[in-house]
Amino acid sequence: MTEIRIPRLNSNDTEYTLVEWLVATGEPVRPGDLVATVETSKATEDLTCAGAGVLQHLVAAGTECAVGEVIATVLPVGTRVSASPAGVSPAGVSPAGVSPAGVSPAEVEPIITEPARRAMAERGIGLAAVRALGRPVIRVADLDALDPAGPGRVEPLSSVQQAVAAVVSDSHRSVPAGFVAIEVPVDAALHQARELTRTHRCLIGLTELVIAALGTVAERFPQCFGAYVEPGAVRLPDRVDVGVTIDIGLGLHVPVIRDAAAKPVAVIAKELMAHRLTAMRGSFRATDLTGANVLLALHTDDGVTTAVPIVLPGTVCAVSLAGVRPVLRLDADGAPVTHTVVSLGVAYDHRVVNGAKAVEFLRAVREVLLAPVR
User: For residue range 186-200, what is the model confidence (pLDDT) as tens digits?
Assistant: First the structure.
């Protein structure tokens, strides 16, 4: 017999919602078959089967499942599987909350996840309003379409923004952060980016050059890519995994460019573009969004002069890249010349890094931006 357990899919959640079964109880499965879909706070994941045999559900769709919980077993081929245990609805069979023929969705009881029940109580949302949604499984995100009764209007946050709120709150509670920023001349870097774009036929800009620069300086500043460990120690990384903020209006995500130090800038650019396309589709997997040991927060809109990023819990540094802006400088003859500069900042865990080291780190990144890259 093989057990199917809920794996740990990210570092933020301790339980996930079992959204649906993809294979019915009693149906045969093989290793690698997709059997269920679960939802984390920021993504959905399909779970696979590790063994061959006959699937037996142990948990109903809509249930909040803890990490490590057994949700199904794979029994030997030929085993006669009885009807699903109480409360478990097999795939392909109308579960509680799915309208049978001739019955309207509002007349049946939906499955309401525990976080959704708590949110209903907090927002004053009644069961009748939830029934009217006509959905078999009610999650917190499904409540966004409903306004609570009473005066005024409460605007519920999206599930993605709720996850952001949790991380930001955790960061402010647990990380005593400092911040410093320096000005970086980028005329040469912008010219180089245009040349690289033409050479490699992929979009390369300051963001991609900064990611490559972080990979270059990591060996000199390993603590900036580490994690504080109680009491009074730091865990150093074995590679550079850069989380990059992406927000195209559908919520903030932080996909990870892994092993940035080992990749040419053109490869970094192609991976980052793939992440942008994934953000547009809203199809990030949990593995895309976990494991960063440094953050690059992008605030590159025109007019943004300085941005203070959040240090992700479990990391030491978060680098911020602001918008480019023109400045006037005097040349050797005293004539004014326009140059392009950008503010490069770093928020840092003061338990690990001090201000002087943070400035040295930023200056090292600046020097790389002024030099040729691969």
Answer: 999 999 999 999 999
